[in-house]
Amino acid sequence: MKGQIDSATGGAQSYTYPQENKGESSKQSSPEQMLPNEPDQTKGTKLQDHKIGYSQETDLDDPSLLRPTDTPIPDSASEVPSSPREIQVAPSGRTIGRGPTLPSRYTFEIPDLTGLSLTNDKSIIYQAINKHILSQPYHEEKNRQITLNEAIVYRPNHNGTHGSRTVQYLDQIWRLIIEKGSPESKKILEQISSKQEVLKLAAYMMRSGRVNEAPLRVDNYYDRSALLFKACADQLDITPENVDWAAQMIQESARNPELNFSRRLEDIFTRSLLSIAHECDLVRCYDERKMEREMGLIKTLLSPLLDRGIDTEATIAKLINYGIELCTLTGNKLTYPDFVEYQHHFIQCSENHDFCESKLAEAKPPIW
Description:
Helices cover 39% and strands 6% of the residues. By secondary structure, it is mainly alpha-helical. The chain has one domain (63-360). The strands form two sheets. It has a two-stranded antiparallel sheet with strand order 1-2. Helix 2 runs antiparallel to helix 9. The longest helix is centred in the middle third of the chain and has 21 residues, at 160-180.
């Protein structure tokens, strides 16, 4: 369906990871092909102990990325327990090629967030979700990982670094609407301003329900992500109405054409914010051809939100450049505009939410 895409895999097109050679873009694969594994090694890097800290033996030029090898990496959620919970969604009934359909039920570890507050305990909450959900192997692709010497990062395309960057994009788009939005957009933004922190948590968990890198048509990961969000958010100081609303926005932002989207202006607006935020991070895995298509989608979503006379294309260029900067700061690989391999500090950003946030804080916000 034209114009309806999966923000993570490009709708009906599955995603093939690019080759390791710098400058070589990703190649399009058919929906019938399963996805290959990530590259196994990053050239030119050496890591002594990723659980403790980085060795000085590295090809990175930025000394701020290096930590003394005897300095433990603090984990703000180290004492947060978890318990298994079965998450069930309606099966899609579709497959890639002749592969089996995915099960409707999967068991996830849900962190115990009882008594915590989004206002006072944000760091603990996000790190607990990262540790127990976003840093765990995919149920259906347990080898979907990257290895840098002895360090392993699971689900690197949709782990906590992706969630943290999505929250940052949402923040900047929020500020864009305040500064350059249409009167109608500013009015709606004011109406949902009390839900901003809830929406950030939803943005962080938008792809938490993925069990592999399969396209949207194969798996209802949007429903599963919404249920995982509810399982966490229901424990916090958030009203049930706001939890249900944010979960619905997770579902609808997946842009599944089979969903019966809400027609409330507030929901249409919020859905656009989340979708734009997610699109900005596609620089990590989409080549120039695919990014041109995605920038067209961002323009379709963003233009109605901005005031008259605002140069939408220039604004989008700033968002995309911001995405490139955030991926670079967190050590994520880049595919657009040129291919850049994963860097050392991607491991620490993946394991530790606070460290990831500290790196993202170094970015220069776009000037609207």
